[in-house]
Design a protein that fits this description.
CATH architecture: 3-Layer(aba) Sandwich
Largest sheet: 7 strands, mixed
Number of helices: 5
Domain EngB-type G: 22-194
CATH topology: Rossmann fold
InterPro entries: G_ENGB_dom, GTP-bd, GTP-bd_ribosome_bio_YsxC, P-loop_NTPase, Small_GTP-bd
Strand order of the largest sheet: 1-3-4-2-5-6-7
Keywords: Cell cycle, Cell division, GTP-binding, Magnesium, Metal-binding, Nucleotide-binding, Septation
Cofactor: Mg(2+)
Strand content: 15-25%
Bound molecules: guanosine-5'-triphosphate, magnesium ion
CATH class: Alpha Beta
Order of helices and strands: EEHEEHEHEHEH
Family: Belongs to the TRAFAC class TrmE-Era-EngA-EngB-Septin-like GTPase superfamily. EngB GTPase family.
Length: 194
């Protein structure tokens, strides 16, 4: 998909701040530092619209990006970073619960995992949480550029097994470095925003 227009609408921490545009929405989910913001930037071909960092915890709010006046991408703070306090974890939980339980425009969630590792317990919890809300899930196995070609199918298989993916879930190998997988991702997103 050619992206002619992409802009940050709002960085929100609570429901009152969510944008009111009647547009379909695609949200992201994934561990801190897994590459959620980099994924958005690669798809919209902007180097740094979504702020990225080599340190975990860069994204701390729900960031709503309007794409081509046709849908919203919602970048979310990551989970699973050990150095986060209990209080912050609880705050994160409330923010996610509020968003995922109330947003009727939400059409699909892009859950990002690192292709190099088995999904973590937190990933399993997030997957189950999204399933609980009956949300369609597209799992992106990112950082594809970091493993040898010969390891790809084995790692994808592991992700399917550990998360216990269901037939209706989509799994796409991806790299924000090389752009591999971008067309597959757009094809999937388009099917949900039409
Ligand atoms: P939080 O906002 O902290 O939750 O992190 P995030 O999930 O948004 O991760 P972010 O996009 O900031 O990326 C984290 C680090 O991983 C950065 O140093 C990126 O350059 C790197 N990274 C992201 N995607 C890829 C990829 O596909 N390949 C490689 N090699 N590095 C990547
Ligand atoms: Mg981020």
């Amino acid at each position: 998909m050619k992206v002619n227009h992409a802009e940050l609408v709002i960085s929100a921490v609570s429901q009152q701040q969510y944008p009111e545009e009647p547009m379909p929405e695609i949200a992201l989910a994934g561990r801190s530092n897994v590459g959620k913001s980099s994924f958005i930037n690669k798809l919209i071909q902007r180097k740094a619209l979504a702020r990225t960092s080599s340190k975990p915890g860069k994204t701390a709010t729900l960031n709503f990006y309007r794409i081509n006046e046709s849908f919203l991408f919602v970048d979310v703070p990551g989970y699973g970073y050990a150095k986060v306090s209990k209080k912050e974890k609880a705050k994160w939980g409330r923010m996610m619960e509020e968003y995922f339980s109330t947003r009727d425009h939400l059409r699909m969630v892009v859950m990002i995992v690192d292709i190099r590792h088995d999904p973590s317990e937190d990933d399993e919890l997030m997957y189950d949480f999204l399933k609980h809300y009956n949300l369609p899930i597209t799992v992106i196995a990112t950082k594809l550029d970091k493993i040898k070609k010969g390891q790809r199918s084995k790692q994808l298989q592991r992700i399917m097994e550990v998360l216990e993916l269901e037939p209706e879930d989509t799994l796409i190998p991806f790299s924000a470095e090389t752009g591999e997988g971008v067309e597959d991702v757009w094809r999937t997103i388009k099917a949900y925003i039409q």
